[in-house]
From TrEMBL:
Gene3D superfamilies, per database record: Cytochrome c-like domain
Pfam family, one: Cytochrome_CBB3
Residue ranges annotated for the Cytochrome c domain, each copy included: 80-168, 246-334
Record PANTHER family: ALCOHOL DEHYDROGENASE CYTOCHROME C SUBUNIT (PTHR35008:SF8), BLL4482 PROTEIN-RELATED (PTHR35008)
Protein name (database record): Cytochrome c
Lineage: Bacteria, Pseudomonadati, Pseudomonadota, Betaproteobacteria, Burkholderiales
SUPFAM superfamilies from the UniProt entry: Cytochrome c
Natural source organism: Ramlibacter montanisoli
GO molecular function: electron transfer activity; heme binding; iron ion binding
Basic and acidic residues bias locations: 192-223
Length: 347
């Protein structure tokens, strides 16, 4: 009646209302209106406008459903929401669903049932936005899909769902979020910016350091866990914690199937996907990495991921032994590779 059939405020009542009804389709609405603010407005009304409160006519659940309908039908996520959704997907979801939304090689081979292929026609036909939000929030029984309602708020869950629907399911067109097309190719503007950054030689290498907190005692425990000596120097001979022994061959197989797309087959950060990533993947062969990464540090990086980067946390899908395997491969192949003389003596 007031906001219009299309949610844009162009209703018959518009001419007689001052201020006019809210246009939910505008960028301003996407930036200003959080879900909580909208629920409060529907409940109690908006002073100085024709928007009255509905708390006496509708239950809290009904009001929430109306708000979610408006947000899902008329409001596009803000740029901030889109970036947040992309970050969450890269860090949490891509481990199983893959960087292109079609299921990672490892997860498809090892998880039963396999993760959903968001790029398939079946996904687009079956998955409504509401169904996806529910699945992310509560998980799916008898699958590896956990619920994330205690880890992410409603807005963050909506953001990652909208990213998936735009980037992989192509519900809203061919162009994905943050200027990236659904097939993973950057827009021309983004490509030029990335090329310019590369020419400047910007170093975005992400090393596996984490904030362990706990003050001086926490720092001391962190140093001990990572094999630091009393002077703070990293012990490059430190073993994995809990007596783990990494299997080089098994780690190599996993690395080549899952890690090389970003970090490169040679550990030089020149994998085919590295072009699209900012900050850039860690360069394991750099002098800095070879001073800062021993086995425990690499193990932590693989397990916990890297905040603010597209390095996911693998501890949800890999066992500690599997993490030790790939960490062992990275350490021996790139951080402390065999010297040429040693290789020659083995021939």
């Amino acid at each position: 009646m007031c906001h219009g059939d299309a949610g844009d405020g162009n209703s018959r009542a518009r001419g007689g209302l001052n201020p006019p009804p809210r246009d939910f389709t505008s960028a301003k609405s996407a930036q200003e209106l959080t879900r909580e603010r909208m629920i409060a407005a529907v409940k109690t009304g908006v002073p100085g406008t024709a928007m009255v409160g509905w708390k006496d006519q509708m239950s809290d659940q009904q009001i929430a459903k109306v708000v979610d309908y408006v947000r899902g039908t008329f409001m596009r996520p803000s740029i901030t929401d889109e970036n947040r959704g992309r970050q969450i997907y890269a860090r949490v979801c891509s481990v199983c669903h893959g960087e292109r939304g079609n299921g990672s090689m490892w997860a498809s081979a090892n998880l039963k049932p396999s993760p959903r292929d968001f790029s398939s026609a079946g996904a687009k036909a079956d998955l409504t936005r509401d169904r996806m939000i529910t699945a992310v929030a509560n998980g799916r029984p008898n699958t590896a899909m956990n619920g994330y309602s205690t880890r992410f708020n409603r807005q963050e869950i909506e953001a990652v769902v909208d990213y998936i629907r735009t980037a992989f399911m192509r519900v809203e067109g061919d162009t994905g979020i943050s200027g990236t097309h659904a097939h993973g190719m950057p827009s021309s503007k983004q490509a030029k910016a990335q090329e310019k950054a590369a020419r400047k030689g910007e170093d975005h290498s992400a090393h596996a350091h984490h904030d362990h907190g706990g003050g001086a005692k926490g720092d001391e425990n962190s140093h001990a866990a990572h094999g630091h000596g009393t002077a703070g120097k990293l012990d490059m001979k430190a073993s994995f914690n809990e007596g783990l022994k990494g299997d080089f061959a098994a780690g190599k197989k996993f690395y080549e199937a899952n890690c090389a797309t970003c970090h490169g087959n040679k550990g030089d950060g020149q994998g085919p996907r590295a072009y699209f990533i900012n900050p850039k993947p860690a360069v394991f062969t750099s002098a800095e990495s070879r001073k800062a990464m021993n086995r425990p540090v690499i193990f932590d990086g693989v397990s916990l991921g890297r905040r603010g980067t597209e390095m996911p946390a693998w501890d949800k899908v890999l066992t500690k032994q599997e993490i030790a395997n790939v960490s062992e491969y990275v350490f021996r192949a790139f951080i402390q590779p065999p010297k040429k003389a040693d290789v020659a003596s083995r021939k």
